[in-house]
Specification:
heterodimer, A: two-stranded parallel ribbon, 16 helices, 13 strands, B: alpha/beta, 9-stranded mixed sheet, 6-stranded parallel sheet, 36% helix
Chain lengths: 369, 366
């Protein structure tokens, strides 16, 4: 460690949200790729998140970004902080504020904030770029991400902590929910696409996002800024589904098409839309488990009361959630002109390779047919 | 034991497992006048008071021996951390209690053999909580295997995993010095129990896992061979793997989805898929010995109730226990055998240098 610390490229990197999808992958990269002279500080909120990275036998810091003193202590002596927190959407701005304040207090030179391209909604206009001003969005997640970015933008002049805000599209690749959920639907024969599958799939391969993050970590003279980041290939949802299907050996996937111009809500949406509201999360914690179980059983019994047969229930489940319907209706690919013009020679993993790597993982995970 | 006698039950470990899985079935049994909760043992005052309120018990202890020395109880439910299981089971046996212990029974074969021998010596039941034995679909598929409906040359793949989400209160299970194992020791206790229950005695041919020195595995893949079947089982705490149990024989294939306890799918030689509702019923009362009322579990939590009923009926009416200490011993042996053969998992979706790092840092090499 002494020798490592003396190396001018040595970095102490805090990964806030190390038990999440991107956090797990970054932890793996920094621990297994010897070319990076780093000491990582994985930060998680709970023991269950630690479980997901427990294979490495490393120590983990427990801190809730919503608690300023906890997160301040956890970020001591760090050179870089990567904010990947994905907790309660209602706390997103507070957590971002706390992380930035902690960075300044601890004199952390660089904060990398992982925001989201969902801020741009369905990307109605081709001209949408990082200067976009969000007026309304039905997803609380997008509104809070935007508000967090706005807070950080006000601190771009900080002389202590430089801030890089990355707005990635949907992060796909090995072990991503944006791969496993379509794959399950393709295997079950109930894959459904909105807008004839012609919607723009704003995707970024997990390895590309990781490479971009690492690019900023080792960038000299970083200037605070916001960047949209995505894979260079522009594909539609139908193309994405077909490539995924092919990667597990389905040559002619069965895909049905959703024609709803205006989305019709169903009971599952209730949990998706309102499930992230603070009050409901609190209620979920307060309600004794016995009542939750009774409710679960009641809902199960209701299916019988409504005289659904099991097969009909399966059919009723086919369809899109509001998020899926929304995302698949995306009109344009997000503009990455700014990133490309500044880092023109960036070496992306292309889609051919990305699908190949994903296919290897799908085989490992037992999805090959 | 008289049929109208209320059995006296103690619980050691009043954490999440008891709160999530045991309170409802125990309350029902209390209401039915089948049991009373006599003692609760836990150092966490908040948990013990909560459980005490729910189960109408104010007799709290922080030490099991003290509790059993001053109270006569019929059976002890052990839901303490794994590292305490052996000590708690042996203490319970010494004081003449039957035991229902959370899985896994213990984390090493020496302790498992000791428990098995002591349960015979004291002539007491040591049962391990395996609620899945009460899944209606699993028992019906087991019968199909037994009566030869699947044919010969049986192969299987059993995969179970996802992002770890149990709201665990401590990280002792995730450090090698305190836990001795990860996902295989934890979820593997269930899956191995089901495999041994289905196919009889087996041996581990190969085992791969991804733990580094001081860590515990978050992924494990094993190949197991039984007299009439062979297959793989894969577990994960960090990967969204395909959660299915597929059993293929010369006559048909059976598919069980891990999130549905009531159905299974038959795939015949013409690739026709038939969804079948499982209807197996278990006794749901501890009061009646002869012709007890029965029910089919609908959700996972129902299985905990039926498991408790089965345990109490075994004590009261001398009925066969579902998972005894010998079954649990077989599982512990298989886990230990797997670990002894462990090699790293080669991942084709990461770089060669990362695979080399995983290989040289693998816990069995260090």
């Amino acid at each position: 460690m002494q020798n490592q610390s003396m190396n001018k490229n040595f970095k102490r990197i805090a990964i806030v949200g190390a038990g999440g999808y991107v956090g797990m992958r970054l932890t793996e990269i920094f621990l297994t790729e010897k070319k990076y002279f780093v000491n990582i500080v994985p930060i998680v909120r709970s023991h269950k998140s630690f479980a997901r990275i427990s294979k490495y036998g490393i120590n983990c810091s427990y801190a809730d970004a919503g608690n300023l003193s906890q997160i301040k202590n956890a970020l001591t002596n760090c050179d870089v902080v990567i904010n990947l927190t994905m907790g309660d959407h209602s706390n997103m701005v507070l957590e971002t504020e706390n992380i930035f304040k902690s960075c300044e207090t601890n004199k952390v030179p660089l904060l990398i904030q992982i925001s989201s391209a969902e801020i741009y909604g369905r990307c109605i206009s081709k001209d949408i770029d990082e200067k976009y001003i969000l007026k309304k969005h039905w997803m609380k997640y997008a509104r809070e991400k935007y508000a967090s970015d706005e807070f950080l933008k006000k601190s771009f002049q900080s002389k202590i902590t430089k801030i890089i805000i990355l707005r990635p599209g949907l992060i796909w690749g090995p072990n991503s929910g944006w791969v496993t959920e379509p794959i399950k639907a393709l295997i079950n024969g109930n894959a459904t696409l909105h807008a004839d599958g012609k919607g723009a799939a704003n995707l970024i391969f997990i390895e590309n996002l990781a490479k971009i993050i690492i690019n900023f970590i080792y960038q000299k003279d970083v200037k605070s800024d916001i960047y949209n980041v995505a894979d260079p290939e522009k594909i539609t949802w139908l193309e994405y589904y077909i490539k995924l299907a092919n990667s597990i050996g389905i040559k002619n996937p069965v895909i049905s098409y959703d024609k709803q111009i205006k989305y019709k809500h169903n009971i599952n949406d209730f949990f998706e839309i309102f499930g992230n509201y603070y009050i409901l999360k609190k209620l979920k914690k307060i309600i004794p488990n016995e009542y939750k179980i009774k409710l679960k059983k009641y809902i199960h019994d209701k299916k019988t009361i409504f005289k659904f047969k099991d097969d009909e229930i399966d059919k009723a489940n086919i369809g899109l959630s509001k998020s899926q319907w929304w995302i698949q209706g995306t009109v344009n690919h997000v503009s990455t002109y700014k990133f490309s013009s500044e880092f023109g020679d960036f070496e992306y993993i292309n889609h051919e390779e990305a699908f190949k790597l994903t296919s290897h993982w799908l085989e490992f995970a037992g999805y090959k047919v | 034991m008289k049929e109208n006698h209320k059995m006296k039950i103690g619980i050691v470990g009043c954490g999440k497992v008891v709160i999530e899985h045991y309170i409802i079935p125990l309350r029902k049994l209390i209401k039915d006048k089948a049991i009373v909760i006599s003692v609760l043992i836990d150092k966490n005052q908040e948990s013990i008071k909560y459980v005490g309120r729910k189960l109408n018990c104010k007799n709290f202890f922080t030490n099991l021996e003290d509790a059993l020395a001053s109270n006569r109880i019929d059976a002890l439910i052990i839901a303490s951390p794994i590292s305490y299981h052996t000590e708690h089971i042996l203490t319970a046996l010494k004081y003449g209690c039957h035991v229902l212990c959370e899985k896994p029974m213990t984390n090493n074969v020496i302790d498992a053999e000791l428990i098995y021998n002591k349960s015979i010596e004291y002539n007491k039941i040591v049962s391990i909580a395996m609620a899945r034995r009460f899944f209606p679909n699993l028992i019906e598929v087991k019968r199909m295997i037994e009566n030869g409906a699947l044919g010969t040359n049986i192969t299987f793949e059993l995969r179970e995993g996802g992002f770890y989400s149990w709201p665990i209160a401590s990280d002792v299970s995730f450090k090698r010095e305190s836990s001795k194992g990860g996902v295989l020791l934890d979820s593997g206790a269930h899956t191995l129990d089901i495999l041994f229950w289905f196919f009889g005695t087996g041996r581990v041919l190969e085992h791969h896992d991804d733990a580094w020195k001081n860590g515990v595995e978050t992924n494990s893949i094993s190949t197991i061979e039984f007299e009439n079947a062979r297959g793989i089982f894969q577990l994960s705490w960090d990967s969204q793997i395909n959660n299915i149990f597929k059993i293929t024989g010369s006559e048909k294939t059976i598919l069980i989805k891990n999130d549905d306890i009531n159905h299974y799918f038959e795939i015949n030689k013409n690739d026709e898929i038939i969804k079948i509702k499982a209807k197996h019923q278990w006794p749901n009362t501890v009061i009646e010995k002869e012709n007890p009322t029965k029910s089919t579990p609908i959700i996972y939590h129902d299985c905990f109730y039926l498991q408790l009923v089965s345990f109490l009926r075994a004590i009261k009416f001398n009925e066969k226990i579902e998972v005894d200490s010998l079954s649990a011993l077989k599982v512990v042996r298989a886990v230990e055998e797997s670990y002894s053969k462990s090699i790293y998992i080669k991942k084709d979706w990461i770089s060669n240098s990362a695979n080399i790092a995983n290989k040289i840092n693998h816990w069995l090499n260090n």
